[in-house]
Amino acid sequence: MYSVSVAGAAGVTVDNMPYSIRSKVSANRNHPFRSKGITSEAQAHAYGDLVMHAGHVSLNDEIGELRMHKNALVWNLNADTSELKKQEGAGSEEALDAQGDPRFLSGAIDFSLARMGFLKRCFKDKRISSGDTLECQSADPALLSHAFELHSILKPRNKPEWTLKTDTLSFSSVEECTFWYDLISEMIRSQSERPKKLLVFVNPYGGRRKAEYIYDHYARELFANARIDTKVIVTTYAEEAKDIMTTTNLSLYDGVVICGGDGFLNQCINALLSRPDRDLFNTLRFGMIPGGSTNTVALSVHGTDDIVTSILKIIAGNRQPLDLCKTTTLHGDHLTYSASMVAYGFYAEGVNKAEGFRFMGPMRYDVTGFEQFMRLNAHECIIRFKRAAPRTKATAIGTATATATAPAANNRPGHKQSERAHTRSASHLPSSSPTPTRTHTSDKFSHLMARSAETILPASETTPSEQPSHMNSPDLSQWMGGGANPHLCLRGCKSCLPDPPHAVPISSVRRSESSNSLRSLNLGTGDCSHKENGSATRKPKTSILKKVMSKRLTSTKSKSLGKQGSHGHSRTQANADTDTAIFVARDIADDCAETADQQNATDDDVQLKAHSDHTTPDGIATLTQSDHMDHTAITATNTDGSAPGDASREASGLALDHTTVSSVDSSRTVPAVGATAEPLEESEGLTFSDIEEGTDADGWEVRKGNFIAINALSMSCKHPKSVNGMAPFAHLSDGTMLLVMVRQCSRPKYLKHLLTVQNPKANHFDDDVLEGANVSEFEVKAISKPSVWMADGEVIEGITDVHCSAHYNLIHYFGSRPAVPPPTIPSSVFRDKSREYP
Ligand SMILES: Nc1ncnc2c1ncn2[C@@H]1O[C@H](COP(=O)(O)OP(=O)(O)OP(=O)(O)O)[C@@H](O)[C@H]1O
């Protein structure tokens, strides 16, 4: 980014020069290229030899090419570049003399709107036709050869929309002109973050089915002028983007851009993370040109769903790390990753039903939302969640740096696993995580780092006091995990954490274990999570993995027993260390199991063995990891040869059954929404009434009852109808998500809640029907009347019981947070009519 003072625009941030498009065509900043019915994006400014870019023009749906030829501007209708080249070589241009009209000749070679209108009339009158070439001599070639156009991006401080600005710079000599042209070109080239090659997927099916139009009329020209090479694929079937994403060599691209909605983006993200070389997520960026129904991700990240803003952020090469939520079954079978929202109940059912009303466009959500409201189903379930402690940049930097300076012993060859485990535990989980983080990394050091980080970090550009007064309500701290001062995720956000200095391994994606996991509950409700379907029917994990998981249970035995009153002693240090090793082992095995179905790792990979230093009284954990991150195997055996975990299950008194992973009854069908599960009284093991609300032995909080909606939001989830979003204070990259639980209530109360969500001046967390918690993990087990789950607007078929965990900075997005809060008036209410697509 460079700040260059140009004539009449002092201090403008010059971000992109090679545009050949001028926004003066339209007074409407959001649609700079639309005016008077002419969909022309052509403002070809050809100045002598310094033709910046000719670009494409469209006139009456005809595509043409503008270019300079011997000091004359040539407009060749319907000619593609190869055709032009051929013509040039053969010198066979057939010029149509348009000199008869003085308007055409008088204004030099600036094809302003009037001239485009004139050309349009010519076209209509059949004075010119497709394939004709127009030639026009410059009125003042001497002047024009000493000037060029500078195109810059304006980033207003008082609104989130970015706009284009064009300045014509004239110089007194060709030398001076060339000097500045070269200098600015060099400055632009030195912006290393700008993408050079993009893979673009256009979904002609999503939203109002205008994605192709949006891409052609907004993005194509801008990308071409910014010299970004694009491979554009307009999808022809639902899973095409996923198929291409899993087979294409993505290392050729700087980013994947979708022109569509959140569901389409979700598909591409999941496709990347399912690849063997998914480490690409460290470098590859995702971008979104809003072309779907809600475009929540673009709205939440940029603060606006303005198409031009999204495109300009891609061109500028902005990089915004995003947390993802990973959803698995309670048994750990991977389901999906989501960037914005995971929902159960009200919203998920609404989205599910809305699929049948796609022809209505975004309005389908209103229709099904109304139907949902009239039904107002509540779903009986148990929710367990682990609150995330408020994090600050300071503490995060402390842990990240502490990680980077891990003890040298871990860096020695053959100790690769320990190193990985260390990295993960220290930097990618919320600090409140009870997982086996290496707390032995000097607390004093972390403390010092935290202090120094506080000193060096720039203050947030937007302090809470600058935000609207209703955003500072002290009541809001109740759902922030207590203590944190809630503030919006704006530029310079204080809660979002800096990207760690090291690459984030995918294996940072982990879930923590707790002995009271809901999967261990056998309430006789029928496990609805195992319907045969795409992702839900993944192969069960290896028996080795089961052993390790059971091993983990064994190690937590004393804790469980303590709860039961059989043994009151606390765990020994040896046991705690074993936990660490086994936990790490389980984590790697998780990765292994996840990737096993998606790839066949080559057998000739060099295997590195890392043996855990920790020997337990009842077992040894052995890790075997290949050089390749995803080629990992793991073994764990009890010294007595028995199946690990059996003892713990017997002793704990809970019907712990982690081994059901391999004994899933795949013939089970999913209960229909609203169906009642088996009565609890007749079930084996625990009954629903045995579960108590409050905090369990693992420190997780438990809620039970009838819930209308359970939503987990990784970002503010702004929506055209909810200008602040469902979670106004959620953050893009703080490693947490906001869990929102809406209990059963009367229709008027729920209506009030829905209206409050839409009211930008109200705080819907004041509603007593709702409880919010900033969490790092949660799990839900349906008891009766099971509903459906949805991730980023895509329904997860056949799943009712899930485990979700927040994962810090898992992908990078072409975007940046806005500097200012969203306007207080919902854009949907006063939407500028000119923003509607034709
Ligand atoms: N050519 C196609 N034909 C049919 N379906 C498609 C095609 N291309 C993509 N899809 C599917 O369309 C679905 C919805 O797309 P998208 O998310 O872009 O729109 P949306 O659902 O209207 O918007 P939003 O998610 O913002 O509400 C995706 O799940 C995707 O798999």
UniProtKB/TrEMBL annotation:
Biased composition range(s): Low complexity: 400-409, 424-439, 514-523, 551-564
Residue ranges of domain DAGKc in the record: 193-331
Gene Ontology MF terms: ceramide kinase activity
SUPFAM superfamilies: NAD kinase/diacylglycerol kinase-like
Highest taxon, organism lineage: Eukaryota
Entries under PROSITE patterns matching the protein: DAGK
InterPro entries: ATP-NAD_kinase_N (IPR017438), CERK_C (IPR045363), Diacylglycerol_kinase_cat_dom (IPR001206), Lipid_Phosphate_FormReg (IPR050187), NAD/diacylglycerol_kinase_sf (IPR016064)
Annotated coiled-coil segments of the chain: none
Biased composition (Polar residues): 460-476
CC terms in the record's Gene Ontology section: membrane
Signal peptide positions on this chain: none
Ranges of biased composition (kind: Basic and acidic residues): 606-616
GO process terms (BP): ceramide metabolic process
Pfam families: CERK_C, DAGK_cat
Start and end residues of each stretch annotated as Disordered: 400-442, 460-479, 507-577, 598-625
Name of the molecule in the record: DAGKc domain-containing protein
